[in-house]
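This section describes the prediction task in plain terms. A model, or a person checking by hand, is given the sequence of a single protein chain and must write out its three-dimensional structure as a string of tokens. No templates, partner chains or ligands are provided. The sample shown here is typical of the held-out split.
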Amino acid sequence: MKCPYCKEPDSRVVDSRSAEDGTTIRRRRECPKCGRRFTTYEVVEHLPLMVVKHDGRRERFNADKIRQGIIRSCDKRNISMERINALVRSIETEIRNSMEQEVPSRRIGALVMEKLKDFDEVAYIRFASVYRKFDDISNFIEELRELQARKKDGTDGGACAEKSTAAKRKD
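The expected answer:
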């Protein structure tokens, strides 16, 4: 690494440590020529991920859009930002792990809904009502029936167990 002070092409690493939840490495370097120290950061280079919209337009993937949609659907729910951010990270990781450079927005929306089913049922219904553009009450009722059937079958991904544990704590 080139020294930012004297432009010496070599420097030596004095200290390395993990930063930002292990996604970055912070390195302290020292220039052998001028003796000054400086800090560099090493991060994984992400290839640009493009989202293909319904009308064919393409735009860069933006996890903040997912986060904002989930925050809106969790409004007035007792859900911490830590849990919401963890959910957004898991969604982004799954999308990036697909190794596709272009992902249809439909697939992203479906993935968010799939994850929200296990995360919080009310947030799921709120998100689904906007995402699926329920145009009448029958669509909404049908979605609720599917959610109830899933819950009865025991395929709710642990959401019921979490709620029953919380209910026991209240007693």
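For orientation: Residues 114 and 124 are 8 Å apart (CA to CA).
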